[in-house]
## 1
Amino acid sequence: MNYLIAFLVGGAICALAQLLIDVLKLQPAQVMVLFVAAGAVLSGIGAYERLIEFAQAGALIPVSGFGHSIARGALMEAERIGFLGLFTGAFEFTGGGIAVAVLLAAAIAVIASPKA
Amino acid sequence: MPNPSKRKHNANEQAKYQRIASAHVPKPPLARNLVTAFAVGGIICAVGQGVLNYFVSSGMTFDEAIAPTLCVMIALSALLTATSIYHHIGEFAGAGAAIPITGFANTIVAAAMDFKREGYILGMGAKMFIIAGPVIVYGVVSGVIVSAIRWLSR
């Protein structure tokens, strides 16, 4: 059941992004930035947390979930250790993913070349 | 002096031409784009749900399972990018491939591969984040500010 909800909510978020690209003629990179910021702001008012409770991966996997994860990590650490936690917590949930991406990107770039 | 009946005839012909031509102009692909973005984005999220379920069922809490799930999805995306499969998914699905975290990882790996020709330091190293960089920048700026406001006003 949670597969179906993840599919529907994740798909809806992606369709909304596609609508912005086609109607407002935005670049995908601009929409990614818009969504990451929107996820963080929605996280700040507690709305994104409720969406994740409902849709789990459907809300976590889109890049808006990335923004939420940054905000959530910062808030969590701030509540735990105080002011500095805002900074040490920013990559609490997302840092691992960035590390994997950098490591694999470097390894793949050394081994493989892009197809012409 | 132009013959009025001939002009009318011409106008009729033109209207007819317009009707025929407009039937053959390709429809704006908006509906198709929305459907493919929805379907592919949804499938990627469902795969993510499977990975998340696996980590939760192996004994992690939901919160603990978030970071490993993102790592696995990013690793899958890196492999699909290296084999240029993700490029084809992206051409087919647009935002359905760009908006999930796999699209974010795809931009990093693809940029690393593309800019290798400009050297390992100023090419691959510097330009790996040419698209993903802004996402991290605005994610951190908005995320930390929002959390600071919420933390201060608790």
## 2
Amino acid sequence: MKFGLIGNPNVGKSLIFHQLTGLGVEVSNYPGTTVDLERGNVCFEREKLEIVDLPGIYTLDGNSEEEVMVRTLLESGDVDMLICVLDSTHLERNLYLLVQVAEYRLPTLVVLNMSDEAEKQGYQIDNEHLSSLFGVEVLTTAAIQGRNIDRIIPTAMEASRIPTLEVQYDHHIEAAVRSLMSMHMAGRVDALNALQGIGPDPDLTESAAVLAVEIEPRHRMSVHQIIAGNRHHCAHTITEAVLKYHETEPGFDIDRILTKSFPGIPILVGIMISVLLVVFTFGSWLEGLIVSAFELYAMQPLLAMGLPPLLEQLSVSIILALQAGIGIAFPFVLTFYILISLLEDSGYLTRAAFLADRAMHRLGMHGEGIIPIVLGFGCNVPAIMSIRLLHSRRERVIASFLVTMIPCSARTVIIAGIVASFVGILAALSIYLAVFVLIIITGMLLSRITPGEQFGMIMEMAPLRLPTGHNVIMKSWNRIKEFLFIAMPLLIVASIILGFLQYAGAFEAFQNYIEPFSTMVLGLPSYATTALIFGILRKEMALETLVILAGTANLNSVLTGVQLYTFAIVSVLFIPCISTIAVLYKEIGLKITLIVSLYTLGLGIFIGALINILIK
Amino acid sequence: MKSSSREDYLEALCKLGGIKGSCPSVAELAELLEQDPDEVRRHLDHLAATGDIRISGDECIELLSPGMDTGKKVMRKHQILECFFTEMLGMEPDAASREACVLEHNVSDDTIDRLGSYIKNPPCMIDNHLRKRGRRKHNFETLDDFKEDDLVIVRKLLWHGGCNRLMDLGIFPGEKIRIRRKLNNRGVVVQVKGCDIALSSEVAGMIVVEKAP
């Protein structure tokens, strides 16, 4: 037996899901999509039931990846029963989805969640009337307090019924639906979907298209508009019938502060900077601990064992990869996830996106794009992982370019350790300035050439709530699991390959080969180029390797100021580190990862060469 | 028989079949085409000979698959052309239909496909300059012209292609919405069906509204 949890975004669906299933949730992609699907099991009367948490959607006839996925799932009959979670405080909007869900005629239980909030706001819902109108059982819950959550599964097992509600559509639509149903032996839902141009059967959509073109001019509206209008009307009539509202004293509206230009924008800047500072300071402190622990307890004992050279090299590679992965995963990624879950659950994230929309628009993204950009300063890895918050692939592509160019904390180490200490603080700041200008140019360029349409932002503001600690931790843990189990193996494999190359002497050969190029184009000695290559493993390793290869920590005794400056700016722009490449590959695919890597490589060399030519 | 009149006949038969749902009679066809039944019958015999239709008795003309394909194709061309003429060029429906009747025989499939997708998704005129110019001509007010706390009624969505998400959220002609917040950059937050929805300025500029009484 398989249950599907369905509902609008922000109705407490995931909270209910986690309360029902507890630990042991499995996150997987729905076949053929990148949409996350959480699955969990629950035991009822010695029977194992599977629960699937479907992504939050507003409608079943849309074209976004989530909407298509949920629709296909309902059509495929892969779920046996639906638990439709509604937000009692926004009943009418939620009923719009329920009206559509009801048309699929699957056994359904309606859960009116957030009843505590609704009571507080003076809403009263007549459950029995609602239940009789839809022909399904209705259960009132309050997931935050855990009220009635334990009754969901028993009620669903005993009393979920097939909905009987029929939406009255415009008579042209009804006629078209009837003729499609008789012509193609199609179901009512399939016919309605086909009229809106969606559905798997090309014959059906084709004949529906002919009918649709006939209907549309008469109404001066698209079929989708007509159907949506009828459904809204239906939802509205039902709401009028079942909802009673007592005027209550409106409390203080925090949005008066948060979404105004002033003080909203200073607050936004403050919050973003503090998120960055927390990730940065706490992260690098913890990273230092983890990295040195690895040095002390893994690397040194390993080197002391005196293994055969090949084995030693490969083991070192594995330890380096683990060191880089774990050194980033817990300090940066986990801290970030906890903070972002806090912002997300409290509803602040949508406000931040609203305020930042205009600025991000220039770079070809919407307001949500501010999150990856800000996080990029701490560490590119969580920043890349957060690009899934963005809605279109176009935005994700643009964000993946920009984020990989942002100077993360490791690159700050290089800028501080080389330029600030040997050349001067102004030179160090000029590197930041140059990188920002390049980021803005890249963003403006990409917003012109990246394929895909750019729609304006249409986003529901999540209501402000106090996040619960348990929920935040659960969410963060589920997300970091992905990093640990998907990005880490990639990291280890890549590191072993690099280690093997080093063992095989590829780097010496490379050094000889690159010598003329390195001195000609970048004006750098070849060992500095080798150090740059090591920067791919972990960015700050470029600095460490440079010191080792130069044979002195007093770098200005072997390299000139211009050389140091060039080295720093190239390593900042140069290919992202291997962990970033691993998550890029996971989030956005091989092609874009390659383009991003080549673009940053080219840009780094180009700028390095430019400085070399101009200043020399 | 000329290819254009063959197409006219097949189109008419398709239309009749679609309306009635059963096979049309010669008399009905003659009425629709405004032609003499005898002449119609003569043409039908010709079509039957080429394998486009089958005539069983006097009362039932059955379209065979080659005839059906041609008929549907021409009907679609007609509808798309007519829709373009009335909706986008603002022609009178009768004139638009007459014009479409002539053009439908000569227009290529590719043109029709492109025109069809153009009607569905006209290039978004998000550009402020264009929008302002359009506004002066039509003299309508959009959501971003109002102040905070104004109560307005949605009249029209100018954004043909991408407004499905707006409708899913309840921003729909006839719906009363309240402007909760407006930024200097004309981004707005509106309250629809009790929910707060943030819209960027381009989207707000696509929603034609008027002040609620």
## 3
Amino acid sequence: MKLRSSSFFGRAALALLAPALFAQTPGVLTVPDPPKLTVGRAADPVLKLKVSIRPGYHANSNSPSEEYLIPMKLTWDTAGPIQPVDVLYPKPKMEKYEFSDKPLSVFDGDFEITTKFKRAANPPLGPAFLTGKLRYQACNDKMCLPPKTVEIKLPVLMQ
Amino acid sequence: MKATFNSFLTSAALSLTLVLAAAAAPPEPAKRIAPAFTLKDSAGKPVRLADYKGKVVLLNFWSTTCGPCRLEIPWFVEFQKTYKDKGFTVIGIALDEEWDSVKPYVADKKVNYPVVIGTETIDKAYGGIEALPTTFIIDRQGRIASTHIGLVSKKDYEIEIQQLLR
């Protein structure tokens, strides 16, 4: 299931090492830097992460219709001042492509992935960062691009 | 004298036209020699490009997670069956990390040509594989006759193979 190749996975590694660069470079999939999340004591924080896929391309959804496809997956560091409780993906589209007999479960265009967090026990107050990783594989009707993992840096203000 | 001069002018104009036409026509780019490699198949047996010298080789970079790649594999199995005895072979280079996913897939599709797992070295040697499938057609002289990035029709592949086998 995993792939390797300097071009294929070298770039995935680079995406992890230089998230800011990749966030700014227009690619097939872009994730704008999320705004600061202010976390009070009263309510559990929720983040809606914006994702945009270039027209003509798609990424497999979080629950691909074929076992061989790499699912989209958003994960968060669990050691921060807030902890992920649930990650909610949008409703996928079922699209038919030239290379598949059956429609595939995909995301395309602009969409949001929602993460529900909870406050960690006795977190340090003040500004902090939480890191997340979005793994995906983008394809079009004719080809697939290397699977990528994009690092997300979420600024958090703990009150 | 006048007729001779006119004839000189005509032939000079013709020569100039031919020279200009020759200069305007882009030269045919020299075909690159396909980089040599030795990689192991799932049984650990080495697969060397050099062993297929004199044959037309369809070198296919693919992966099990790539839908368009999976569509092409049965075509390649068919080409191998049809053209193997005419001086042709397919070599599959899977860019999956492990044999775990490749082996069962190859067995299920009854792949009848050599399949190896790719390395960074071969990826770089072939210019860095940007997208899958990427397929190089290598002629009998060991030169890269064409490169296809993305899905190509079965018919187009077959025409190209037949032309190179002539």
## 4
Amino acid sequence: MTGYLYYPGCSLKGSGAPYEKSLLAVFSALGQELKEIPDWNCCGATAYLSVDQDMAVAMAARNLAIAEKLDGQDVVAPCSGCYLSLAKAKATLAEYPDVRARVTAALGKASLPYEGRVAVRHPLEVLLTDVGPEVLKKRVTRPLKNLRVAPYYGCAILRPYPGVPSPQAPHSLEDLCRVVGATPVDYPNKARCCGGMLTAGVQSVGLRLVEILLCEAKAADVDAVVTTCPLCQYNLEVYQERICKAKGKDVRLPILYFTQLLGMAFGLDDHALGMDQLLRVPLVAPCAGVKA
Amino acid sequence: MNPPAEAPRIGVFVCDCGFNILGVVDVPAVVKFAAALPGVVHAEEYKYMCSDPGQDLIKKAVQEHGLNRVVVASCSPTLHERTFRRVVSEAGINPFLFNMVNIREGVSWVTEDKVQATEKAESLIDAGVRRVTLQEPLEARSEPVNPNVLVIGGGIAGMHASLSLANANRGAKVHLVERQPSIGGNMARFDKTFPTLDCASCILTPKMTEVKIHPNIRLHSYSEVVSVDGYVGNFDVTIEHKPRYINEDLCIGCLKCIEACVFKDARFPNEFDLGLAKRKPIYIPFPQAVPTKVLIDPHDCLYLRLGTCKKTCIDACEKDAIDLEQKPDRVSLKVGTIVVATGFKPFDARRKPQYGYGVLPNVYTALEMERFLSPTGPTEGVPLLQDGRKPETVGIIHCVGSRDKNTNEYCSKVCCMYSLKLAHLIKERTGAEVYNFYIDMRTPGKGYEEFYERLLSEGLKVIRGRVAEVTKAALTRAEKDHLIIRAEDTLAGFVRRIPVDMVVLAVGLEPQSDTQELRRMLNLSCGHEGFLQELHPKLAPVSTATDGIFIAGACQGPKDIPETVAQAGAAASEALSLIHRGVVEIQPYTAVVNEELCSGCKVCIGMCPYDAIGYDEEKRVVHVTEVKCKGCGVCAAACPTGAMDQQHFRKELVMAEIAGVI
């Protein structure tokens, strides 16, 4: 039983395409198999759970049941929203026998017995724990020297089902930055909300949260913000111009996925990492790594 | 085993325990059931069997019905076995011809179904009657109590217990063992105490001196208890004196050696000041330390670390007290009772990384703030920021590590009050605006609520809500260069961000980190939060499950100084009560050998934890030394031929009891 099962969710097939590209490229460069779960369905996102608990849990659990039916390897969920939905479904089924009875009955009708055997993990933790910083470091061919990076985790992989160690003071992204030779700055807002869906729903509040994060990163004089979640990346990236105009200040910054950072250091091709699909990329000199 | 001399005439007494048993168990039915059991000649029910009329009822029944064995079905034997054995004995029956059946803790408190509860009570009584039928008369033996006492821990609890014992217990020694170089404990670190704001030093240091000079106290400072053997009245204790590298008998505390040390500057963190101040390799913990003797830290001293130094300290000492070759030395003592007063450990604030302790500047624990506020502390009583300014605003965060599912669920009890005290002192010394962030303000205690009222009238700002985080990420100009405390104000109903200069974390109280080792050494038990467990939370609060060992102070659970002192006095008086009685009764549950069955395989000898079994080469059988045997039963269980048996727990008794319940 080697490799991992990959649960992409909708984002990585859409707006988060650069995340999927860079994730697959990095795992493949490390010789780690990522097998997409066949016939996966929507994780239910955060919204569905407040509409119908049984239905929401059943939807997420269906993906886990399919994973169990395969080889039962760990499920890698790169999108923080997917990670949270799957982890919450698993925890709910373990904690509440009544929900479990109804959900397993429903899944049973689709010949998908659920036992709760598979683990749900975020790729950041998989890379740092299973592969390990030493192996990652060995693979680095283009150290990103002089690249100052703001490590930004968002909320969903930290609370309430921590996907990385030390969720109150996470350090995985900082560890990763050091592995690739970049400099992680002290970014005290690293676990604050990116605005989530509020950037669409209550935009005045959502954009205010984005503005705080961008201003803080700007003040720390970084070359890029590195993220772990497609929604965080989207919020921080696409509203920059609007905030610049509305507030009369420059908040323009490249917003990267941590897998892109890693891929750049591995010397992988920009196109393979989806760098050409970003609105802004950091200037990294090809070899010397000198800031342009 | 000899058959009982006379036919059994058993009386069964079933207790209602008010509604405790009667509310669930059909007691009249149980009495009827018991009366019909073989050997039972009398059975009756009473409201409170342990009360005076209940006891009289048993005695009367013994007379009237000529009973020679008694079963009482009531609560747990740990509560009243002793009571009823005495009653039976007073009625003229050997106390070991009595058996207690637990139908309260074992039945009525844990069974909801009344029919099942009644059936369970009946089968337990059946078992008890079968057992008592086979029990034999035994005699408890008594042993003298050694009047010397061991007190472990030299904080306020240990000192108070030692003085109470030493003042009453003439002609005997109290051995007070303290692992730190000075006695005084945490209280010695405080400036003032709540709610009266009386000076901690003024009430503590005279007590420290009294301990030192008391003729009946032998102080073992900078020492550890390494082993405890024996039993109530007769404990064998080994204490290790850690090397100070100073001859304590010669040192007069002139401190000239410290001045002469080749290190001209104090550069090593001073443990007493929690690292906030520095000391030299040769030092005294604090000016009022008792004993006022210097010591050398072998990790810091050049000679002890590297073997080379000019050793200027030796030249400076006029008394030739410095001994750089000193080794640890062990002393063995005999004591009859032990008082454990090992105190607490403050919660490690690093376990709540969201509060920034150890990462953000000007975030301190409450104990560190106590040192800042102390006139002998690193800033001589005025808390200062790292840049040397006085803070203009200070936030005190309550419940750090307490009432928290992620760390400790229990309330540490003293933090609300000490936080209010710190707020008052910080305001008094710096004029700063102080904010206290609390979950619930807990101020039960004499004068405590009044103290809270006083603080409110002094202009203390209180915000109800658990703090989410302390951050330096400023959002406004007013927040810039401040620490921002973010909390939901649950009374006002919105999230607050309060910029402050300094944060104080009101850390909770935890068991000492080596409580488990201590527990094993003394054969004590701990509650689930890790504090030492008392025998009974209400009726035996300073006793433990091990006879002769008493507990006092925060080692038993978080408590403030008044409560600690009260417990210390109680522990001393419990010990004295044993000492003055002079003898202890040792239960005759010792092992016995049936020599005819013993094959001499010696399996039991290796199993016995007390070295109580010997081998008779001539008869080729083992024998038990009764005084050494603790009645643990290991040998009886291990014996392959069934030759080894334990009195009062003979195989026939246990088998008869089992037959009754199945």
